[in-house]
Amino acid sequence: MTTNSGSSAQNTKSPQENYSAYLFAYFTGNTKEEEAIRFAISNDGYNYRALNGNQPIIPSAQISSTGGVRDPHILRGADGKTFYMVVTDMVSANGWSSNRAMVLLKSTDLVNWTSSVVNIQKRFPGNENLLRVWAPQTIYDPEAKKYMVYFSMKHGEDPDKIYYAYANKEFTDLESEPKQLYFSPTNGAAIDGDIVFKDGKYHLFFKTEGQGSGIKVAVSDKLTEGYVLKDRYVQQTTDPVEGAGVFKLINEPGYILMYDVYTKGRYQFTRTTDLENFTVVDQDVSMNFHPRHGTVIPITAQESEALVSKWMRAEDVLLSAQAQEIKKINVAIDSTKKTLRLPVKAGTNLSSLNPEFITFPGIKVSRSEGDFTKGGVNYTVGIKGQEPQTYTVTALEARNPILEGYFADPDIIYAEKTGRYYIYPTSDGFNGWSGTYFKTFSSSDLVNWKDEGVILDLPKDVSWGKRNAWAPAIIEKKVNGQYKYFYYFTAAQKIGVAMSDSPTGPFVDSGKPLVDKFPEGVKGGQQIDPDVFTDPKTGKSYLYWGNGYMAGAELNEDMVSIKPNSTKVLTPDRTFREGTHVFFRNGTYYVMWSEDDTRSENYRVRYGTMTSPLGKITVPANNLVVAKDPATGIYATGHNSVIQVPGKDEWYIVYHRFNYPKGITMGSAAGFNREVSIDRMEFNQDGTIKQVKPTHEGIKPVKL
């Protein structure tokens, strides 16, 4: 057999054909619709494509007692051709101590599955105070010549412990009463066990909770007893993790340890050769889905072909374009019109562009003559057992979004010290805006941006706020003849400030919040979204902030404290929500803000004017700066900043929007899957701002 690790050390038989691909079984979240078994496949163990459009391959209601299943573990049997899968029978909405059962599944082709529910409390006496049964897995015991199912259980006030029992020959029931396999010596919880057989030893990866939390490993010479703890954590992140899964790479010496970074909505992959030392390889990993607690096994070309024939679609193949020139998260497909739009990076040679579609056994992709400079190119996708599908594929240079990946709330400056532009965004793409770090990007032309890395990491660098890294702002100031950078940021719904001698950091936090209370007279909203502005008339600097209200105050010369009694509430009108930004042009102070909610497609930017940095705001009759454009699929254009090209009356607006094209289909999740764009901003002769048309094309490189 092979364990989920892919190890073949215990095989009694093996397939005639060598393994050539990987199958990933997973679920996707905590709603009932997400608590179901899904499949994805990969050619290399790093890059995975969801099958069946990332929809369940088996309806949970047909196989479970609760209507939902989680934590799928898949195993190839000892005969090399039978497959076993076990899942937690649970709906999280009923509570984390609400389930007593697991589901056992069996298949001979990975496509058709039989299933049985095993309720531990009903099946075995003595479990009256059983609260939950979690994360079952299966391994073949060569001594007992049986399949052993192991899982965690919690009884009453006791911590979760890992138990095991043997399945019957039909794999429809547990034939033996659960016995304790392992408990944490710290008397904390031990859950999510994953046993890997290597070099004659069984390595039990598990998650511990209580006194410390993370993934540890216990090792034994025997499958069912004698596990000795190696008392150190093996996850390579400070974020909470669960669901460790280890698999052997095909025809390579290494293993992958992957786990669910569940508070951040992402998976992390690490590589190891000895199950002792682990290196993060996230940069090599890609998925078109967001898995939760899953497992991977190697499969043959024949098995891959069967899975593809059953569950792969032509659209899935076309959406897999991997060419470096393509902005992958912005690829748009229309299954009705049979078209595919490939946005490419600035400077791409369209005459030689090869999309590099990922294929698997059973898939053939062919293209018509011509290239992308002449318009559409026809691609025909043939999948075994399905009618061939032909799509017209176009490629065009799309400079928006300007940053690769999910980012929001951009603040932009031109640094005199370096002669470069810098964007400081919120790191986005985390469920519920749960990001904890800030990055910066630099450019010489406002089009080509370099990732300068993390400049402030809340868990490591900020003592008073470890969560919700949001909406920063920065300013360059000369202090005693030296350039200094003051970085204002949101952490845990408070505003702090950090300093650096360089626009790329490292930044050092002041050690305490700068703003953590409501201004006088304000009773609702949040202390977030700072903006910093230096008045070119006086050299004085000002801080603005607020959600639900707009406040402003003068900063002291040290730039890390607020001048006493200078705070004013400046809320312009009912359209104000958040995202204040102030700039100066031709004697006028402009103040911009965002209207509506960042999760709304109608999130947009408005503006007013002031005669002084903390003066009364005058709101023009037509004050909309940028808003959605449904005709081009651009929505939720908001939380902006602006930049003036040094020495010129040439202005650009930098803002975020929903991801294109998926954002508008994501519901409220679109509000934390945002992208940064830049477009030209122009003024009328009377100084009023012309409404900006948001574009995919973006701007051409700007020369200083």
Strand order of the largest sheet: 20-3-2-1-21
The CATH superfamily label of the largest domain reads Glycosyl hydrolase domain, family 43
Q: Please write the CATH class name of the largest domain.
A: Mainly Beta
Strand-residue proportion: 35-45%
Helix content: under 10%
Reported for the largest beta sheet, the result is:
5 strands, mixed
Runs in which pLDDT lies below 50 for 5 or more consecutive residues are: 1-16
The helix tally amounts to 5
Oligomer: single chain
**Which architecture of the largest domain would the CATH scheme give at its second level?**
5 Propeller
Give me the secondary-structure category. Answer: mainly beta
Q: On the 0-100 scale, what is the average pLDDT?
A: 95
What characteristic shape results from the CA principal axes?
globular
Termini distance? 65 Å
Please name the CATH topology of the largest domain: Tachylectin-2, Chain A
Question: What Rg is obtained from the alpha carbons, in whole angstroms?
Answer: 28 Å
Number of strands: 45
Descriptive keywords:
five-stranded mixed beta sheet, Tachylectin-2, Chain A, 5 helices, 4% helix, mainly beta, 704 residues
Detailed description of the structure:
There is one protein chain. With 704 residues, the chain is mainly beta. The chain folds into three domains: 292 residues, Tachylectin-2, Chain A (5 Propeller), CATH 2.115.10.20; 83 residues, no CATH class; 275 residues, Tachylectin-2, Chain A (5 Propeller). It is built from five helices and 45 strands. It has a five-stranded mixed sheet. A hairpin with a 6-residue loop joins strand 16 and strand 17. One of its GO terms (biological process) is xylan catabolic process. This is Beta-xylosidase.
